[in-house]
Write a structure and sequence with these properties.
Radius of gyration: 22 Å
Structural class: alpha+beta
Distance between the termini: 33 Å
Helix content: 40-55%
Length: 413
């Protein structure tokens, strides 16, 4: 089986992994390991996210994670999307000395006509990074061996054949993520992100060349010649839902022409995103926001975003193809990044994918896939899953093959 080749910028993480998995565990890791054996480090599981809402929210305030592991995001996703699709929630809570220490929002899906039970992150195919929530002291001390024991105990209780945990950040709080073991492999997609400062102009000049800035000024001027241009963040539910409907419609038209399904067009996803926007506005926070660029009142581009832990997530976007010559998406992006700077975000995260508009701004941040087969069925399943992912990786990294796939999709459309 072909595994990802290490890059030069992976070497610090690989050295850290080598230290992490050495025979000499540090004192804190040994303490936590011993507590796990004696039961002082206890594990609790719940099948309903709402039953651990208080614990989840407490950890959000005192732990490290991402927007896509927040209670507000995942409980809503499960209510609207996951439950109806037959996905079983499995929330794993670790407690040290009787206090919540970490939370893994997992789920169980059934494959092979129900004979194979695979455990994945809850909502993983509608999120970007799957980190879990980790209290600082536990993050500093928990060892991957301890966590493996936790997962095996959970597997025994819930008849799990395989843990297939995708898109795990390589590091969290500048430490190797506790889930990452020496057998973890690079995810098919990475995220692209870059640091922010309060001064947007400084960030803009540092990230984009003078020629790129000049081209965008020219396009902005030409777009203004076609009508009155307005780019803004929705500040009321009616505007937010109008922008959301436009986003779904514009993405549908664009993806239909390329033969790719529009994942946001399903009624359950519409309901989920609607709830995210409305509840965030009701709470007066920046957890979910939507932006639009309008010309004479007509929406020409949108961007759905969210902010958590001072990290600004640009989740998904859309453009009107008829206005494509003016690059409305790039013009709206300038406003979105400037707003992120004003809101006090310290980093801007484009999420999964390596599209041109992302790579021209941001740096690549690798994600890892972690697999833990528990049964013989699980070992057979992960072998097949990785073969398929290796094939996809080969296609994506071979320009001729990727071009052929795109042509076939367009023909099918």
């Amino acid at each position: 089986m072909q595994h990802a080749t290490a890059r030069a910028d992976d070497l610090p993480v690989m050295r850290a992994l080598a230290d992490l998995h050495s025979e000499d565990m540090d004192v804190e890791a040994m303490r936590l390991d011993g507590m796990l054996e004696t039961g002082e480090f206890s594990i609790r599981t719940e099948s309903d996210p709402h039953r651990v809402a208080d614990i989840w929210r407490t950890l959000q305030e005192n732990a490290f994670g991402t927007l896509f592991t927040s209670y507000e995001w995942l409980s809503s996703w499960y209510d609207h999307v996951g439950r109806a699709r037959g996905i079983e929630a499995l929330i794993v809570v670790g407690e040290v000395d009787g206090e919540p220490a970490f939370l893994l929002p997992l789920s169980i899906t059934r494959k092979a006509r129900g004979h194979l039970r695979i455990c994945r992150f809850l909502g993983d195919f509608h999120g970007n990074q799957n980190s879990g929530l980790w209290r600082r002291d536990v993050l500093a001390g928990i060892h991957v061996r301890s966590l493996r024991k936790v997962l095996l105990k959970v597997a025994a209780s819930h008849r799990i054949d395989l843990f297939d945990l995708k898109y795990v950040p390589e590091t969290i709080d500048e430490r190797v993520h506790p889930l990452i073991c020496p057998h973890a492999i690079a995810s098919l997609n990475a995220v692209h992100a870059f640091p922010l400062e309060a001064d947007f102009d400084k960030v803009y000049k540092a990230r984009r060349s003078s020629s790129a800035r000049k081209k965008l000024r020219t396009k902005e001027r030409k777009l203004a010649e076609t009508g009155t241009v307005c780019h803004r963040r929705a500040e009321d539910p009616a505007t937010a839902l109008r922008f959301l409907e436009t986003l779904i419609t514009q993405r549908g038209l664009r993806q239909a022409s390329s033969g790719i399904p529009n994942v946001f067009d399903a009624p359950d996803m519409r309901a989920f995103l609607t709830e995210q926007l409305v509840r965030s506005m009701e709470a007066g926070d920046n957890r979910c926001m939507i932006y639009g660029l309008e010309v004479d009142g007509e929406v020409r581009a949108t961007y759905l975003c969210g902010m958590q832990y001072e990290r600004f997530h640009a989740y998904t976007n859309s453009i009107c193809e008829d206005a494509g010559v003016y690059s409305p998406g790039d013009l709206l992006l300038l406003h979105v990044i400037a707003d992120a700077c004003r809101l006090g975000a310290t980093s801007f995260d484009f999420g999964l994918g390596a599209e041109r508009y992302k790579t021209s701004w941001a740096d690549r941040e690798a994600l890892m896939d972690v697999a833990l087969p528990v049964t013989l069925k699980g070992r057979a399943a992960i072998f097949a899953i990785r073969r398929i992912r290796d094939l996809r990786r080969t296609i994506r990294n071979t320009p001729a093959l990727w071009s052929l796939v795109r042509k076939m999709r367009r023909l099918r459309a």
